[in-house]
Amino acid sequence: MPQNSVLLVDDDPKIAKLLRRYFEKEDFLVLSVHDGPTALQLYRDKKPDILVLDLMLPGVSGLDVCRQIRKESDTPILMLTARDEETDRLIGLELGADDYVSKPFSPREVVARVKAILRRTRKTPEKADFFRTGKFIIDFAGYTVSADGIVLDLTPTEYKIFELLATHPGQVFTRFQMVEQVQGVAFEGYERTIDAHVKNLRRKIDDNPKDPRIILTVYGVGYKFAGDAHA
Amino acid sequence: MPQNSVLLVDDDPKIAKLLRRYFEKEDFLVLSVHDGPTALQLYRDKKPDILVLDLMLPGVSGLDVCRQIRKESDTPILMLTARDEETDRLIGLELGADDYVSKPFSPREVVARVKAILRRTRKTPEKADFFRTGKFIIDFAGYTVSADGIVLDLTPTEYKIFELLATHPGQVFTRFQMVEQVQGVAFEGYERTIDAHVKNLRRKIDDNPKDPRIILTVYGVGYKFAGDAHA
DNA sequence: TTACTTCTTCACAATTTCTTCATCATTTCT
DNA sequence: AGAAATGATGAAGAAATTGTGAAGAAGTAA
Q1: What is the pTM of this model?
Q2: CA-to-CA distance for B132 and A143, rounded, in angstroms?
Q3: pLDDT (tens digit, 9 = 90+) per residue, B123-155?
């Protein structure tokens, strides 16, 4: 998990420096710019995790920056508003800012809000990354395979073999190919080890291991995953 | 609405008395001391809602008091600075003060600022930012985890590990990833230190540590928080 | 400083998984 | 059908991984 990064956009160098120190204390990677155009440029280049944006900027206003960034992405934005003006706040939120803090603010509060926003927006735990085929679901992030919703108790090697075959249904893999995938490039063992794993795997995924319907043997070649066409 | 309490720290009895009267008019419970050490002592004893702190104090300076209190808690602090010196202001904010007022000030302004800070910090999302999963509640702001409403006594590292895993239920983390999260990017130690922390953590959160149900081991990969990643 | 908590590391035990082998079953080919 | 090749299987020892307690190091607070 990488370090959090924040892009500060404030034309007051003192405030920028102050905030920078606070964020760095919290282990953020801090980028800091003093005007809107540079902000956009740096944003596009670095894609920080969040922006802290002063509403009052010379030239292009903070609202413009906010609007533009919102067009390009969902990167969270915290607005700094000069006064506790309801108007500014509403406009900011309307443009897609995620929160705002009024000046004079405490740096602690700004950091706290940023962390809260990041937590909120990150709640989606790594886009659910699943693979489905027939009754099986592979959960890559969780290293599990489930059949009809029940998680199977696979060993690491069994999981890897299943993943390899299931994600390439119908494609035959030789034992050598499988060993390479599963144990890494340099293999020096008995190719038939795969047979043992397939045997154990079949026990766990096939209703009747004597008549395998999921992982099929291709005589003289290797194994393949049955396409989900029939039974 | 319970009564607000404020701790005044100023070595000038006249100013202290003046402020006291204003705060009492606004229905504050006022504590007043004239030096740093006494301030810390009374603070720890009474836990006021907010501190009004003179920068200029005999002996231990206001900055020291501010720094120390910030170590101990998030209690808001309003600094009184002798002049409108940008430096003092920035130093104060840097140390974690929430706002400042320059002398000569109007007592009404001080009270107004205090009320503003209290308003702000009361509605701060930080205070209402929790994560729930099963019987556990993570209080991000307080760095605590409770189970069935009882706060667990976790070490900082244990808390971080728990937060990482619990907020990503079902997702496996390798020891390396966990170490990176917990100790920062530059890691040069023993990966299996994580095992020790997990062991200690399990003692505290699992009813039967011999049969872990909360933090699960994924053999050959790492650890994950039990959670319904599938359906 | 001392006392205290927390972190890291280590050794070894406990557990799980992998590999290998002998044997039997099945398929293919003549 | 018979022979030869290939695959399936159970079991056992080897190997890898994790669990655990304890000791010392490192960090904190008073």
Answers
A1: 0.71
A2: 24
A3: 544 445 788 888 999 988 788 999 998 999 999
